[in-house]
Amino acid sequence: MPIRTKVIAIGDDAYFEDYPLLVLFGSNCPDELKDVCILHEYIDQPTDDMLAEGTIILFGDKRYVVEQTGGVANENFMKLGHVSVNFSPDIELMPGSVLLSPYEVPKLQAGDTITIG
Question: Which residues are paired to 24 by β-bridges?
């Protein structure tokens, strides 16, 4: 069953000019990180295995596939709503990150839905 989350705010610096990366964080995001994050709230109950290789993620209606998942990405995303989403195989995959393809950063707006699975 898909897990949906709703974008509630886009930080002023959430789109990095030199890095194809988005940082998602739940509504409990620390104030000092809000400017660089896409803030969201879960609509559905998250699970500890929602970000697996081959999982489909829709940012609005744009389709992506999880290629790699860092070792703590699922745990952090479930507990904190936090995950770094890489859109380039040239960026080192950190433990709290996932790599998605195609390698194109989606443009999100408050109110958009992200569907996982």
Answer: 38, 83
The contacts of residue 116 (CB under 8 Å, 6+ apart) are 2, 3, 4, 5, 50, 51, 55, 56, 57
Chain position carrying tokens 């898909």: 2
Strands, E, within 33-105: which ranges?
Answer: 38-42, 56-59, 62-69, 83-86, 97-101
In the chain, DSSP finds a helix count (H) and a strand count (E) of 1, 8
Question: What is the per-residue pLDDT across 39-96, written as a single tens digit (0 to 9) for each?
Answer: 999 999 999 999 999 999 999 999 999 999 999 999 999 999 999 999 999 989 999 9
CA 13 to CA 32: how far, in whole Å?
12
Structure tokens at 94: 């950190």
How does strand 62-69 pair with strand 97-101? antiparallel
Structure token digits, residue 69: 């998942």
The single-letter DSSP state of residue 43 is: S
Cis, peptide link before residue 102, omega less than 30° from 0 = yes
